[in-house]
Design a protein that fits this description.
two-stranded antiparallel sheet, 488 residues
C-alpha cells in the first residue's frame, strides 16, 4: 500500500510539473525554428518579433500555472511562488533587450536570438532547481551562451571583452567544481535540503570555494574586475543583460545555496558576506567617482549594487530563519525587480550616443535635444542612488529597514553612507545632460528604438515607488526559499 501510494504521488507530481516544462520546451522549439529560418534572408526585426512573442508566451504560461508548489525528484526541481517570481524577473530581463539589440546586429540575427533563448532556458532551470549539479550545469549553459553574446559584435573591443569574460568565467567554474566536491564530501548529497545541515571543515572549504565561484558571476569585490571590462566592451544591449539578468540569477543561486545548503554555518556566512558587502559597496562607489567613461561608471555602480543585494544574505546569516529573515528576503526580491529596470535602462541609454565608448561629456546637452529622454535617464540614475519618488528609493528603504530590524543598524549606516557617495557621480552625469553645452549635437541617436526603452524604464521606476503593497505579498512568498527544509 505504501509503495502504491508513493508511485501515485510521484505520477501526480510529475503530471503537475509537466506544466512547467512546457515553457522550456516551447522556448527550445522557437530557438530551433529561428535557426532553421536563418537560411532565408529575413529581416532582423522579424527574428526579434518571434523571440519577443516566444518569451512573452512562456512567461504567461508560467504565470497561469494553477499549482502553488510542485516538487520533482529529490528537490531536483521545485516549482513554487518564490522560484516563479525569480523566473518571471529573469524572463523580463530577456524581454527587455530583444528590440534594443537590433541596433547592434549587423549579421546572423537568428543566431543571436536563438542563443538568447537557449540562455533563458538555462536561467529558468537554474531558478527552479535545488540540486547543485543541475544548478551548476544549467548555470554553465547560461555562461557559455553569454560568452557568445558578449563577442557578437565582432569588433575588436567586443571580442576582447568576450575573451576576458570567458577566461574569468572558467576560473569561477573551477572554484565552483571544487566547492561542489567538498559539499558532497561533507553531506553525501547534492540536494539542498534540511538533511545537509552540518558544520565541518569540509563544509567551510565548500562554502569558501562556492562563494568565490559564484562571487565571480555576481561580480562582487574582489572578483569584479572582469565585469568592468566586459560591460564596457560589449554591445550596449548585451551589457544591459549581463548587468541585470545574469547578476540576478547569480544572486538567487547564492541565497539558495548559502541560506538553505549551509544552514549550519550561518555565523561564517554572516562574517564573510558582511566583509564582502562593505568592500563591494565602498570600493565600487569610490572608484566610480573618478570615472569619465560612462559605461565603466555604470559597471562600478553594478558592483556596488551587488554589495547592497548580498546584505540580504548577511542579515539572514546574523538573525537565522524567522520573520526578520523573511522581510530581508522580500526586500531582496523587490530590489531585484527594481534593479532590472534601473540598471538595464541605464545601460540601454548608451544607445542614445553614436559612439562605441561613451564618456560622461558625450551626454552633455541631451536635455536640449530630447528633454523627455534626458529626464528619463536622470530618473533611472536617481533610482540607482535611492532618491525618493523612484523604485530604487523604495527598494533601498525596505532593505535598510530590514537591517535595522535585525539589529544591524551599523551596517545600515554604512550602506546609507555609500548611497550618499553614489549621489555625487550620478548627479555629475545629470549635470552634464541638463547644464552643459553639447560637444557635438550630431552624435545623438534619438530613434524610437533608442529612446523607448529608457522612457519606459523611467515610467516603471516611478510606478514602482508607489508599490508599497507589494512587500507584504513578497513577505508571504519569501518562506518559499526554505520549502525544502522540512516545510519551514
Amino acid at each position: 500500500m505504501n509503495i502504491f501510494s508513493s508511485i501515485t504521488y510521484t505520477l501526480h507530481a510529475a503530471s503537475q510539473a509537466s506544466l512547467y516544462y512546457y515553457p522550456l520546451i516551447f522556448l527550445g522549439i522557437a530557438a530551433f525554428v529561428m535557426l532553421a529560418l536563418g537560411i532565408r534572408n529575413i529581416d532582423r526585426k522579424v527574428f526579434a518579433g518571434i523571440t519577443f512573442t516566444a518569451v512573452l508566451i512562456s512567461m504567461i504560461m508560467i504565470l497561469l500555472d494553477p499549482y502553488d508548489e510542485v516538487v520533482v525528484g529529490n528537490n531536483a526541481l521545485l516549482f513554487n511562488r518564490f522560484t516563479m517570481f525569480f523566473a518571471v524577473i529573469l524572463i523580463i530581463s530577456v524581454l527587455y533587450i530583444i528590440f534594443p539589440a537590433i541596433r547592434g546586429l549587423k549579421s546572423k540575427p537568428e543566431i543571436f536570438y536563438a542563443t538568447l533563448l537557449f540562455v533563458l532556458i538555462g536561467m529558468l532551470v537554474s531558478a527552479f532547481s535545488y540540486n547543485l549539479i543541475i544548478i551548476f550545469v544549467a548555470f554553465e549553459a547560461v555562461s557559455l551562451g553569454t560568452y557568445v553574446l558578449a563577442g557578437y559584435g565582432k569588433q575588436k573591443r567586443h571580442l576582447e571583452a568576450s575573451a576576458k569574460y570567458f577566461f574569468t568565467g572558467t576560473i569561477g567554474t573551477a572554484f565552483t567544481v571544487f566547492g561542489l566536491s567538498f559539499f558532497y564530501t561533507a553531506t553525501g548529497t547534492f540536494s539542498l535540503t534540511s538533511e545537509v545541515i552540518s558544520s565541518s571543515p569540509a563544509m567551510l572549504i565548500a562554502l569558501i570555494f562556492l562563494l568565490i565561484g559564484f562571487g565571480f558571476k555576481l561580480a562582487i569585490f574582489p572578483m569584479h574586475q572582469w565585469a568592468i571590462d566586459a560591460y564596457d566592451g560589449t554591445e550596449n544591449s548585451v551589457s544591459a543583460f549581463l548587468s541585470t539578468g545574469t547578476k540576478i540569477l547569480a544572486f538567487m543561486i547564492l541565497i539558495k545555496i548559502f541560506l538553505v545548503g549551509f544552514a549550519g554555518d550561518y555565523h561564517d556566512i554572516f562574517l564573510l558576506f558582511v566583509i564582502l558587502s562593505v568592500f563591494s559597496m565602498t570600493y565600487a562607489n569610490l572608484a566610480a567617482l573618478s570615472q569619465n567613461n560612462l559605461k565603466r561608471l555604470l559597471a562600478y555602480s553594478s558592483v556596488a549594487q551587488a554589495g547592497y543585494l548580498i546584505l540580504v544574505i548577511a542579515l539572514v546569516g546574523y538573525t537565522g530563519i524567522g520573520n526578520v529573515a523573511y522581510v530581508a528576503i522580500a526586500a531582496g526580491m523587490f530590489y531585484s525587480l527594481v534593479y532590472i529596470f534601473m540598471k538595464g535602462g541605464s545601460f540601454l541609454a548608451m544607445n542614445l550616443v553614436n559612439r562605441e565608448s561613451v564618456s560622461v561629456s558625450d551626454v552633455a546637452g541631451l536635455a536640449r535635444k530630447s528633454p523627455v529622454t534626458a529626464l528619463s535617464f536622470a530618473i533611472l540614475l536617481m533610482g540607482l542612488a535611492g532618491i525618493p519618488f523612484t523604485g530604487g528609493f523604495t527598494a533601498k528603504y525596505y532593505l535598510f529597514l530590514s537591517l535595522i530590524e535585525g539589529n544591524l543598524w551599523w551596517l545600515a549606516v554604512i550602506a546609507i553612507l555609500n548611497s550618499a557617495i553614489s549621489v555625487f557621480y550620478y548627479f555629475r552625469v545629470i549635470m552634464f545632460m541638463f547644464w552643459k553645452e553639447p560637444i557635438n549635437e550630431d552624435h545623438f541617436n534619438l530613434t524610437a528604438y533608442s529612446k523607448a526603452p529608457v522612457i519606459a524604464s523611467a515610467v516603471i521606476m516611478v510606478a514602482l515607488f508607489f508599490f508599497f503593497y507589494l512587500l507584504p505579498t513578497l513577505n508571504n512568498i519569501a518562506p518559499g526559499l526554505f520549502a525544502t527544509m522540512g516545510g519551514i
